[in-house]
Amino acid sequence: INLSSDFLITPDFYWDRENLEELYDKTCQFLSITRRVKVMNEKLQHCMELTDLMRNHLNEKRALRLEWMIVILITIEVGDSTVDQTLHQTICHRDTVGRW
User: Fold this and answer.
1) What is d(CA 14, CA 23) in angstroms, rounded to the nearest whole number?
2) DSSP labels, 16-48
3) What's the pLDDT tens digit per position in 59-75?
4) What residue spans define the domains of the chain?
5) Are the C-beta atoms of residues 10 and 21 closer than 8 Å to each other?
6) With a threshold of 0.70, does the pTM exceed it?
7) Taking the C-alpha atoms of 42, 46, 47 and 49 in order, what is their torsion angle to the nearest 10 degrees?
């Protein structure tokens, strides 16, 4: 967002009316439009930076949560495989001991 794009340029309407153009220019000077636009642009820039900062923080937080979910799922899979292998070895060991 940039307020200084067309706002600071004298509108075409005043070009044909010199007395009104002069009035317009004096009004802009009296109201310090240029300075106000600059201040507003700075405030908007700060707001955009804050918004970007918050967006990045939320994205990092979400990515961290997804990483932890993946770690937990891998841990569950490894635990399940370990239990499955242990049970399989125990059953096979009982079968081989029972045959002797």
Assistant:
1) 9
2) S-HHHHHHHHHHHHHTTHHHHHHHHHHHHHHHH
3) 999 999 999 999 999 99
4) 12-99
5) yes
6) no
7) 130
